[in-house]
Design brief:
4 strands; two-stranded parallel ribbon; 71 residues
């Protein structure tokens, strides 16, 4: 079992996922390591929603990303 810290899908991470049209992009560097475990547990620090608009404030602590990230 692997335990990792916060996964923050909003702000710059969310923008990069959209820019590259790749919602797995934030995990590329750690995927090989984490795939070796039977289970990986993390804290999703934010919302995945197509209904909530991402905040305009770049320094907000409200993180919103597209639910396409679930795949």
């Amino acid at each position: 079992v692997a335990f990792v810290g916060d996964i923050v899908p909003g702000r710059n991470v969310g923008k990069k996922m959209v820019q590259f049209n790749d919602y797995t992009r934030p995990f590329h560097k750690v995927a090989a390591e984490l795939s070796g475990y039977d289970a990986t547990i993390a804290n999703l620090e934010g919302n995945l929603s197509s209904r909530i608009q991402p905040p305009a404030d770049a320094h907000t602590f409200s993180f919103v990303a597209d639910p396409a990230m679930v795949d």
